[in-house]
Backbone:
């Protein structure tokens, strides 16, 4: 088909990919859309799981690579990485000339995508806007909303908040979260080789025995406290002494503090029940989560996919403060006794009922259809019911 609408998706992290993969598939399947993919930031780095290799193995063609991460994992390098990404993305967008750019959620790299696209008069679509959380993500998410032309909200409340922020009702669509598409549409049974396939570091785990999953990221607005915060989680997990799958934190400012705490624990305690991993494919992470006795930490996956799967979750600290959640979540502070007590309570409780708060598993197809049909004006303005 001639005159296909070119849709460029920027994938910057393992979480980004899991939350946009089904949209990529849905765009690729349409005859009236031309999919472009830019892979950058931590998605290119070995220590964060080399997501770009997973993208390739999933059958997607990468149109450009974006190297933008400045080492250090502190507020200064985070700001510099954002600035570098703006510079590089401007060149890539100039070369690819997309009609629409999609940016995902609320990470700092998302800000770079939004700034570059909007200043270049390229229509910007944003997923997961309108949500409420803690950390710098809250500010980034709403700033990106004001730069975006087309919005794909994950929940009804998020869509309502976008309207309250003055976004055009015609451009706000409650599609559900694309990450739910994966957990809703695959076989979630536990593969016998899941723990060995991804190697990692630590003792061999038995996939047929109970295990917990821990994923705790830094909180940028609490920079300098990450080392002490992860110590509390480590103490709690040590007291539980159950098989543990521990995923490495993301690249946000403060990541080095948490990584240091994990390395010290591993090298001094030699735990015989904890195995550390860099990454899993979105599908295998869904299987890992579904079959876990409890998910611990501060990843939004516990609130999103976890609620749909009914997995018991212990959410720690402020990173997800204010985010919608199902009844599967117990909220605790950075205190090892509170964390341990909550984990034990969740282990006793077992699985929860499925919750469709974040979607029904059809978000990707909905988003692709809207991308094909939407009439978008580059000129934005506040919209509070006044005539245009």
Residues:
């Amino acid at each position: 088909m001639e005159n296909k609408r070119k849709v460029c998706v920027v994938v910057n992290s393992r979480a980004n990919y899991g939350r946009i993969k089904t949209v990529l598939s849905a765009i690729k399947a349409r005859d009236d859309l031309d999919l472009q993919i830019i892979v950058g930031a931590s998605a290119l780095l070995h220590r964060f799981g080399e997501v770009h290799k997973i993208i390739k193995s999933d059958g997607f063609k990468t149109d450009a690579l974006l190297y933008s991460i400045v080492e250090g994992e502190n507020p200064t390098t985070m700001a510099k990485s954002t600035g570098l990404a703006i510079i590089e993305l401007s060149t890539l967008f100039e070369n690819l000339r997309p009609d629409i750019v999609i940016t995902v959620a609320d990470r700092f790299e998302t800000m770079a995508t939004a700034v570059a696209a909007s200043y270049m008069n390229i229509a910007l679509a944003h997923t997961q806007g309108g949500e409420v959380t803690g950390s710098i993500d809250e500010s980034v998410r709403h700033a990106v909303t004001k730069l975006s032309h087309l919005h794909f909200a994950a929940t009804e409340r998020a869509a309502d908040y976008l309207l309250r922020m003055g976004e055009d009702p015609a451009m706000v669509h409650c599609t559900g979260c694309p990450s739910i598409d994966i957990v809703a549409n695959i076989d979630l049974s536990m593969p016998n080789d899941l723990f060995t396939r991804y190697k990692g570091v630590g003792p061999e785990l038995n996939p047929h025995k109970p295990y917990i999953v821990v994923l705790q990221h830094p909180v940028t607005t609490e920079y300098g406290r990450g080392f002490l915060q992860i110590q509390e989680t480590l103490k709690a997990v040590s007291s539980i002494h159950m098989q543990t799958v521990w995923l490495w934190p993301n690249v946000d400012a403060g990541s080095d503090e948490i990584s240091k705490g994990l390395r010290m624990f591993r090298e001094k305690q030699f735990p015989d029940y904890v195995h550390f991993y860099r990454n899993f494919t979105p599908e295998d992470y869904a299987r890992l989560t579904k079959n876990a006795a409890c998910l611990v930490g501060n990843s939004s996956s516990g609130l999103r996919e976890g609620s749909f799967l009914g997995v018991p979750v212990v959410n720690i600290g402020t990173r997800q403060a204010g985010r919608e959640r199902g009844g599967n979540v117990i909220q605790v502070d950075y205190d090892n006794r509170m964390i341990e007590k909550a984990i034990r309570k969740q282990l006793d409780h077992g699985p929860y009922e499925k919750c469709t708060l974040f979607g029904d598993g059809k978000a990707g197809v909905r988003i692709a259809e809207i991308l094909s049909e939407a009439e978008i004006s580059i000129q934005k303005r506040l919209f509070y019911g006044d005539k245009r």
